[in-house]
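Thread: quick sanity check before group meeting

JM: Hey all, I'm pulling together slides for Thursday and realized we never actually wrote out the predicted structure for the chain we discussed last week. Dropping the sequence here so it's in one place. If anyone has concerns about the input, flag it before I start.
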Amino acid sequence: MSQRNSGVTVEVSPETEFENIGEPCAVREVLDRISGKWSIQIILAAAEKPVRFTELERSIPGISRRMLTLTLRSLERDGLLVRTVYPTVPAKVVYSVTDSARELHDAFLTLMDWAERNRSAISASRAAYDAAQVAEQDQGEPAGGPA
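JM (edit): ok, ran it. Output follows.
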């Protein structure tokens, strides 16, 4: 299989593809679980210290109580958060990251650093690509070129 980008063709062998037909791919499965809109933000917010539901709710703009609840349950189910209930009145509930989530947190920080360093280059590349697509369409050529 080959992949094209900006006139460069890269050969990709079946061993290096994300998923072979009929076989689940661990990388894709994990990325699907953590790449939701709120998961990364919750892990980042809980990485420094155990946090309460209301602290998370206040620290993540735009998240609804229902979505926060669902995402917390999902992260707990995946072994990335631990929910601890203290026997007080009213009950005190805190969420802490697990060792796996702490490791993931470090990877997020690396990814965030990469994104910050490369954001302008990516924006410039997108603008150049979009301009080239408009120019091709204006000349009557099919956008995207030959398949």
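AS: nice. The radius of gyration is 21 Å. The chain has five helices and five strands.
JM: adding both to the slides.
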